[in-house]
Amino acid sequence: MFARRSRRTAATGQGNDVNGKRLLVFGALLAVGGALVAACGGDDGAPAGTGTTAVDASSSASKVTLRLGYFPNITHAQAVIGVASGTFQAELGSNVRLETKIFNAGPAEIDALFAGEIDAGFIGPSPAINGYVKSNGEALRVVAGGASGGALFIVRPEANINGPKDLAGKVLASPQLGGTQDVALRAYIAAAGLKTRENGGKVTVQPLANADTLTRFKQGKLDGAWVPEPWATRLVQEANGKVLVDEKALWPRGQFATTNLIVSTKFLATHPDVVEALIRGEIKTIQFIQDKPEEAKKIVNDEIARITTAGLAPAVIDAAWQNLDFTWDPIASSLRKSADDAFALGFLGSKKPDLSKIYDLTILNRVLAQLNLEAVKQ
User: Fold this and answer.
1) Model's pTM, two decimal places?
2) Where residue 56 falls among pLDDT bands split at 50, 70, 90?
3) Which CATH superfamily is domain 30-149+254-370 in?
4) What angle in degrees, to the nearest 10, is found between the helix axes of 314-321 and 231-239?
C-alpha cells in the first residue's frame, strides 16, 4: 500500500517504455544544466528542501555531480517538480551539483546510463527490467517508486469494441514494441485467447509514437490504443475515444508501477549519501503533490511548456491527473508481473530472468523511518 505522511493508504488512481525483440528509440536528448526554476516556484507553496537530514550529502570532501534523467511529462511529475522547485538541490546540499538530462523514451535513458552519461533516472518498469537483464543484473537498481496508474485502453466507438473478444480483426496501437503499455496490451489480448498477426492471429498491434497514435486515431486508421497519460485523456477529449480498460482494474488494489527511480550500481555504491538525499527530496516532493495538487499541476505544466514549447490544455491535465497516483512505493509485485508477461510474450529471451537483485530499498526505508512513514515492501 502507498505510504503517505499520515500513514494512510493513498487513493488508487504512466509511461513511455521499452525494448524487446527490437527497440524503437525516438525523441531527442536535451541536456539541461543545473536545477530548473519554475516561474510558479518559490513563495507560492512549492516544496522546500528543509528539515534535518540523517546523512548530509554535502559533507563530502570534494564536489560530487549527480546526473539525473527524466521525461517532461506528468507521469514524471515528481522529477519535474523536484528539479524545478529546487527541492532536490536543497536536499543534496551545496557540495552536490545536480545536472539534469531530458529524455523522451526509456531506451535512450537506459543507453545513457550504460554509457555513464547519467547516474540516476526516473523511468518506467519495462526499460528498467530490460536494462537490468541486458547488463546481467549489474548496471542498475530500483531504489524508489514514483507513480502508479495512468495507463488506459482507449477505443473508437465506431469500432464496436465492447470487450476483449471484439478485438479480432482490429488495428491497435501501443507506444513501443516491448514497452510497458505494449506488454500490457499483448497480455490482455493473450488472456482473451487471441493472437496477434505476427503470431498467426487476427489482431494487429502497431507500435507508434503517441502523437502519431492520436493523429491516426482521429483519421479512423486505428481502432484502439493502450497508452499512458496524458495521451489516453487526449484520445478521449480530442478524438472522441472511449475507455475500454483502465489498467488499474487489472491490478490488486488498482496499484501498478508506472514510474520508478533507478540508480547505477556504481553510483549507489560510491555515493549512498547522495542517493539518500535524492530519495528524501523525492518523498518531500510527492508529499507536496499529494497535499497541493493544483499548485503541482501548474508547476508541471509550466515546465512541460518551457521544455517542449507546448503545455497541456487545462482540461487534459486535470482529467489525466485523476488517473495517476504519485508514490515512493515502487510496487515491486507489479514490476515482477510485468516481467513475467514480457517473458511469456518472448521479449526477455529464452531463459526467465532472475530479478532478485533489481531492488535495493534499504535507503528508501531508512528515510521513511526517519520521516515517521511506513516502510515499503520489496
Assistant:
1) 0.82
2) low
3) Periplasmic binding protein-like II (3.40.190.10)
4) 130
